[in-house]
Amino acid sequence: MRRLWRVASLLWQASPWAMWRGAAAALTVLVMGAALLGLSGWFITATGAAGLAGIGIAFDVFRPSAGVRFLALGRASARYAERLLTHDTTLHALAKLRLALLDRLRHCPIDQLRRLRSAAELTRITADVDALDGLVLRLILPLLAGLLTHIAAFAMLWWLTVPSVALSIAGGYLLGGGLVLWLTARAALVPSKTAERSRQTLRRQVIGLFRGQRETIQQGLLPRRRDELNLTERAEQNAESRLNVIDERAGLVLNLIVTLTAAAALLAGDIAVGLSTLSPAAAAIGFFAALGLAETLLPLRRGLAELGRMHDAAGRILPSETPKPAALPLPEVSPDHQTALVLDRVTVAAPGRQTPLMAALSLTLPLGETTALTGHSGLGKSTLLDAIAAVSAPLSGRVTLLGTSISDWPDKQLREHLTLVPQRARPVGGSIRENLAIACDDLNDSAAWEALTTVELHGVVQRIGGLDATLGESGTGLSGGEARRLALARGVLRRPSVLLLDEPTEGLEGPLARQVLANLKHSLPDTAILIASHRRAEQEMADYLITLQPTHAEK
Amino acid sequence: MRDVLTLTKPQADRLRICAFLRICADLLWVVQAYAVAAVIAGWLEDDDHGIALVILFAATGVLRALLSYGAGRLVFDLGQQVVQHTRRKLLDAQTVRLDAALSSAEVAALVCDKIPLLAPYFTRFRLAMIRVRVVPVAFVLIALTQSWAVAIVLLVTGPLIPVFMALIGLAARDASARQMVEIGAVNRLLVDRIAALPDILLLGGFDRSRALFVTRVDALREKTMAVLRIAFLSSTVLELFSAIGVAMVALYVGFSLLGEITFGIWGAPLSISQGVFLLLLAPDFFQPLRDLAAAWHDKAGAEAVAEELAGLDVAPVLPILGRGAKVAPLFGPISISVNQAETFAGINLPDFSIGPGESVALTGTSGSGKSTSLTALAGLLPLSCGRITVMGQILNAENADAWRARLTLMPQHIHIPDTTLSEFLDPHGTKADLGPALRIAHASDIVAALPHGLDTRLGELGAGVSGGEARRLLLARAFFSGADVILADEPTADLDAVTAGLIIDALRRAQDSGKTVIVASHDPLLIDAMDRTVGLPEVQA
């Protein structure tokens, strides 16, 4: 439960004021609801008693009936306020949770982050944050408001009735409610984990089946894959069914608590009336308030059913050990602008492997020159750029940027001097301006247009509506080649000392590719540019050409 | 599949049983209300049946809870049945068609997220719908036996039912709009940012991007709250009706007991027990209506899913030939001939014939139907006219599975499944030696470089197999399977010269060992390496 507690306290701190406000509104609704029933019960019993005694005319009907009307209308409007305020609170929490996730991810190594890009991973993250969204609306606020309501109700009932009535109501709801909360939470933990896991497996198998559909059919494996899917589905439904049993049981127990607590209040009232320590009308308050207080408990059921899922999600979204940035921040380095980049016998390996992809490479890049890096696919061009940009470590050798070993650069300063534009760089959803603003502080229009002109994208942007034209998620609205050039424009705005480009002009016609490269050299005259490419345009435009060689082991 | 919202006879019966149990539970409240009324009246009349009545109240309450529990379990199973049936029907239809009406992610979303929304339609909405037709009516009738005035109060505040339902409908439409706005938009934004995070970090732009994210989320919150302020109004009206109803009953009863109101009863003045009874009846009269309102968005959700599923049936379905099952291969030496064949999309296949140990390159501009031709040759696409003859038989639904057992297909875009390499290469689990096949396909060194060799788990982004490597592995699989025909779609596209050379060489080796090779390509080197070329006609724009 500690995980959930951590998430809860994080959400609480996000906006304590909004939380209190939401809880206060929820409290008002509950208190008014209980008071409405209590007062109505009292009113009827008291009028009945007065009618029996024949003193009906003397009975003050004005105040109680005004009270009933006030509570009835007040409860409805308090309910409106409660809905609005708790949803506002939830939206605050929602934002905070997602920011906390982003803040945690920023410290993850970049190559690990790239793996998160798969659809399955992103769906899982979404499912997890969704699960945690319920925490505020369905658990924290109702629990808090319910507890406060019971304290208030206990005090009022103690004052208006006798201690035995107040105690049986508070005892029944708090002890019973606490117990069922605890038991359900424990019971739901394992099945909700199983259900979530089989749901993910189901998703993966469906995606896998349809991605490889042709091959599956061609290999005659379709019936077998379908059987596997059906098996997973059955496992998922079994787990869901176990969860439903727990949920229905929780509902059953909550209903029993309400019935038995109301019965206890009725009995306590009956005894007190019998002993003449309590008037019938006051005893009626106890019973009717007990009925009204059922609203403190019943809404918790939904939250309870999801507790297991929330607990699980909390562990994935905010694990207890957040990856720390380097233990000690590295000291600032003083760049030496003699040479931009020096590689000394560098080799790289594919992720998770130990054999070098290529023969060791040594080279020196001067500032202001452009170098093209070629070599057949599988020799590790992209991996090499990653190693130079300190995204992953080289297998052997040494990378020196502006006179200092790459591993000694503090990350922030490193990114100021070196920019890598990966092959699969993608725009974010939002305006063109937002996309460019990620690259530098205080972006002004002229700088933005200048960068777009450099990558020959100004025409396209003008056509789709200027800097404020919005792109869909992952940059929909631009073609693949245009998206790549937008990423390139961000690289230009960085004005780095070293610019690493991975296949920057893929998908562009030869003349356009040459134009972009020429513009690039022109607008970044002091930058050392290293381009990994197998295209002729790059190779022609470069000052130097370096071809990666296979390892000697290979022929 | 529009009929997903209708139940079979046994299912409908089951729903009725659940509804019956729930309605019994709802109506048992009358017994409880009677017990409470009698207890309280006893207090004023010095009657001494208190304890027995309290026990009646509690015991009835326990029975009610148990009935609800039973109904809840039964109806949940019903929901699962519907979900399972719908999922299987969808998969049955979608797995045997290749015309890609849905992307894999869309099918996954339907199966995992959307179809399950059908369950609450039955478990919550339909159940509430049946209850709403019975319970309030019963309560009004019961109230009527005690006081016609109270019955009228209930009738006026409650079932002006059409008005109520319209309000509920409004509330619900806004509620579903609300769900769409708030969570969906924030999540899409988050997913987008996470996917872009590596690029953002490389630009040193985390703080800037975070600030933009906060602004966007804040703006979204403002927008959402503006929607909610209106959306919640309609549900508040509903809330208000029931509150006013309860308050009016309480006041009417109170004033009647005082003798200040004398109308609305049958003869004798209202007794205290009648009064308490009526007061207790009022909130539960409204309960089914409120439950129905709460379940309304389940209806909206399920109808949206039903609509989407129905939309799938509109487009004509072009199923594959056969079932995609493993059967005994077609017998005899390979022979294929294509005659005047045309697909339903109007693409003409070139006429040609080919025998064992021969190779052919299908050429043509992009869009002329090279890939389609290969797909049709594998029996994955039905023909509108003409025929493909394999081993002397016309390719049809009966022999397509057996024909596919003799061939292997290399698509241009290779899907690497999330399995181990040995499972990938040997999908039928024969456990035979993979070495020779890997050698012929120039793929031994790929396996050697993997951290766990053949036991390495591949997967979308796992072990990082490059495009050229994946093609060689696929060729190795083709050799291993012993297939006599290799259909390869652009096997050298996007590859550098050296890697492309390895692929071409492997295809030549395949032909030399007696296999029939058909490639679709526009790579001159690959085309040269084939025995002959069959050109596809230019497409008319």
UniProtKB/TrEMBL annotation, chain A:
CDD domains: ABCC_MRP_Like. Residues 22-309 form the ABC transmembrane type-1 domain. GO terms for molecular function: ABC-type transporter activity; ATP binding; ATP hydrolysis activity; ATPase-coupled lipid transmembrane transporter activity. Pfam families: ABC_tran. It is found in: Cell membrane. InterPro entries: AAA+_ATPase, ABC1_TM_dom, ABC1_TM_sf, ABC_transporter-like_ATP-bd, ABC_transporter-like_CS, P-loop_NTPase, Type_1_exporter. SMART domains: AAA. Residues 341-555 form the ABC transporter domain. It is a multi-pass membrane protein. One of its GO terms (cellular component) is plasma membrane. PROSITE patterns: ABC_TM1F (PS50929), ABC_TRANSPORTER_1 (PS00211), ABC_TRANSPORTER_2 (PS50893). Keywords: ATP-binding, Membrane, Nucleotide-binding, Transmembrane, Transmembrane helix. The chain crosses the membrane at residues 41-62, 139-160, 166-189, 252-275, 281-300. Its main location: membrane. This is ATP-binding cassette, subfamily C, CydC. It comes from Primorskyibacter flagellatus. The lineage of its organism: Bacteria, Pseudomonadati, Pseudomonadota, Alphaproteobacteria, Rhodobacterales.
TrEMBL record, chain B:
It is found in: Cell membrane. GO terms for cellular component: plasma membrane. Residues 331-541 form the ABC transporter domain. PROSITE patterns: ABC_TM1F, ABC_TRANSPORTER_1, ABC_TRANSPORTER_2. This is ATP-binding cassette, subfamily C, CydD. One of its GO terms (molecular function) is ABC-type transporter activity. The chain crosses the membrane at residues 20-44, 50-67, 125-144, 150-172, 230-255. Residues 17-301 form the ABC transmembrane type-1 domain. It is a multi-pass membrane protein. It comes from the Bacteria. Keywords: ATP-binding, Membrane, Nucleotide-binding, Transmembrane, Transmembrane helix. It comes from Primorskyibacter flagellatus.
